[in-house]
């Protein structure tokens, strides 16, 4: 059984690959760190089964599944069981909950093997379409409006987007400053802003090529001599405002 994994958290991806490597008859043909890469690799290697994280940078696991359903069975990876249990169980579409457990993985592989043998062509596509029609609105509402899923040490926990004060880039990562914590996440600033502002609220505004602030936490703006400015947040933290982004920030404030 040829399998592809698409999971943007490196530690979680390694763990799943390690578990799969011990299962008889399993060949891991490719690993992807985001949805766009998953689609590219799936098209190239045409795996029989694809383990797809529901929430990834770029294309979501749901979108990838739709595009490869003609040749690959989908097993969805999720940290939030409410996203999957009702719609996926109802339509017999497999999912794997984080953190990964060997027993659950083996049960999933057993079901997938049986489907590969017995299912008529097109049956997976029909079941998948029915499940996605139910699950997409649920994923979108929780994903867009209130929460961000932090990925750390192979674990996932939701935090309120409103609690994030500002974000700064570090190489291919973003550091989120929230509550009394910071967290380094593997994503670009553009990807975070797309996620955070999908509801249309535009609560996060880019203020520099390497940072953005949550407008709800902004206290005041003090001009500097070179056309830049200094943003002071309600927490007392200060973030530099580049003159390149100053007009956009003022426009978001209605000025």
Helix residue percentage: 25-40%
CATH fold type of the largest domain: Rossmann fold
CATH architecture grouping of the largest domain: 3-Layer(aba) Sandwich
**Order of strands across the main sheet:** 2-1-3-4-5
- What is the CATH superfamily of the largest domain? Response regulator
Give the percentage of residues in beta strands.
25-35%
CATH class wording of the largest domain: Alpha Beta
What count of domains describes the coordinates? 2
Q: Summarize model confidence as the mean pLDDT.
A: 85
Q: Which H/E pattern describes the elements?
A: EHEHEHEHEHHEEEEEHEEEEEH
Number of helices in the DSSP assignment: 8
Give the biggest sheet.
5 strands, parallel
Helix-strand makeup class: alpha/beta
Shape label = elongated
User: What is the terminal separation in angstroms?
Assistant: 59 Å
Unreliable runs: none
Record field, number of beta strands: 15
Tell me the Rg in angstroms.
21 Å
Provide a quick synopsis of the model:
The protein has eight helices and 15 strands. It has 255 residues and is an alpha/beta fold.
SSE layout and pairing:
Layout: E1 2-6, H1 10-21, E2 27-32, H2 35-45, E3 49-53, H3 61-68, E4 73-78, H4 85-90, E5 94-97, H5 102-118, H6 123-145, E6 147-152, E7 155-160, E8 164-170, E9 173-178, E10 181-185, H7 189-196, E11 204-208, E12 211-214, E13 218-223, E14 229-233, E15 238-241, H8 243-252
Helix pairs in contact: 2-3
């Amino acid at each position: 059984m040829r399998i592809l994994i698409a999971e943007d958290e490196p530690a979680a991806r390694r763990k799943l690959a390690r578990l799969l490597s011990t299962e008889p008859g399993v060949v891991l043909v490719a690993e992807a760190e985001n949805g766009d890469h998953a689609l590219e690799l799936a098209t190239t290697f045409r795996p029989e089964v694809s383990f797809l994280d529901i929430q990834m940078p770029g294309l979501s696991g749901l979108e990838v599944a739709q595009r490869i359903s003609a040749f690959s069975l989908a097993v969805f990876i999720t940290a939030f069981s409410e996203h999957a249990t009702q719609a996926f169980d109802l339509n017999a579409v497999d999912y794997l909950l984080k953190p990964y457990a060997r027993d659950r993985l083996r049960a999933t592989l057993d079901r997938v093997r049986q489907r590969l043998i017995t299912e008529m062509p097109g049956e997976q596509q029909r079941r998948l379409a029915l499940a996605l029609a139910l699950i997409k609105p649920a994923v979108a509402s929780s994903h867009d409006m209130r929460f961000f899923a932090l990925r750390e040490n192979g674990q996932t926990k939701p935090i309120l987007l409103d609690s994030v004060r500002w974000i700064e880039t570090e190489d291919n990562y973003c550091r989120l400053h929230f509550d009394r914590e910071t967290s380094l996440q593997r994503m670009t600033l553009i990807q975070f802003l797309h996620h955070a502002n999908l509801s249309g609220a535009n609560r996060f505004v880019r203020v520099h090529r390497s940072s953005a602030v949550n407008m709800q936490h902004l206290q005041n703006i003090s001009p500097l001599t070179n056309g830049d400015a200094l943003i002071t947040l309600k927490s007392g933290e200060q973030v530099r405002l580049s003159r390149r982004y100053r007009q956009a920030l003022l426009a978001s404030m209605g000025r």
